Amino acid sequence: MRHAPRTLSLTPGHIALIHREVPDPGPTAGVQQQTDADYAEWVERIAQSHPDPARPTQLFAYGSLIWKPEIEHGAEQMGTARGWHRAFCLRLHRFRGSQEQPGLMMALDRGGQCRGVLYELPHENLEQQLDRLFRREFTVKPINSMPRWLTVETASGPVRALGFVMNRTSPYYAGRLAPEEVAQILAKACGHWGTGAEYLLNTVTHLQARGVRDSGLWRLQHLVAEEIERAAAAMARPDAAADPEAGARP
């Protein structure tokens, strides 16, 4: 079996090859959106189920929350959530994908383990922080990324932390896809937030900076780089101009 190299294969240069300006299409017609009342209910539910209200709330970040948290937080520490793993299993028709070229985003799916970052949230405005966080993490009904309390192992012992896990009953759950299939999707999908490949690169880069090398993501970034290079080479062929589908073939 061939192993991926120790250095990143996927680069900003690859991202530039597939990035394109995509207008925000807005919410998908016919899909119910979370309302202010829904978010308020989720905030109340999570606040009331807090495992230890006397202690600071911990938030478990495994993906974009690591490199774009967008919330107030204090102390940070590394931790491992067992029984969950990162997976590109959430289908997107907006944000980093489109109706014409659906994308994939990471979620925590069942099985394995996941090393990530714990953020300590401030006491004084916890409900406002949760509201902002929930509006960031889920927008449609039925909910796709469900907030729940996880047990996360740290150097000082286990802690209970808020995390977001994949709702397998969501119509956007893609299931367990082969890495090669995920790579083909990420190498093409783009929305008004950017490409799936950029999302992957940001996550791998920031995990690497914290000493975390997720073997699945590391292999995936190598496969995505190969897919982008293959498509670029196909488009550069002399006959590509006469065949507009040439660059889309695997």
Automatic annotation (TrEMBL):
UniProt keyword annotations, A-Z: Lyase
Lyase listed as a keyword: yes
EC code: 4.3.2.7
TM annotation in the entry: none
Protein known as: glutathione-specific gamma-glutamylcyclotransferase
InterPro entries registered for this protein in UniProt: ChaC, GGCT-like, GGCT-like_sf
Superkingdom classification of source: Bacteria
Annotated GO biological process: glutathione catabolic process
A GO CC term assigned to this protein in UniProt: cytoplasm
Record organism: Paracoccus lutimaris
Single Gene Ontology MF annotation: glutathione specific gamma-glutamylcyclotransferase activity
SUPFAM superfamilies: Gamma-glutamyl cyclotransferase-like
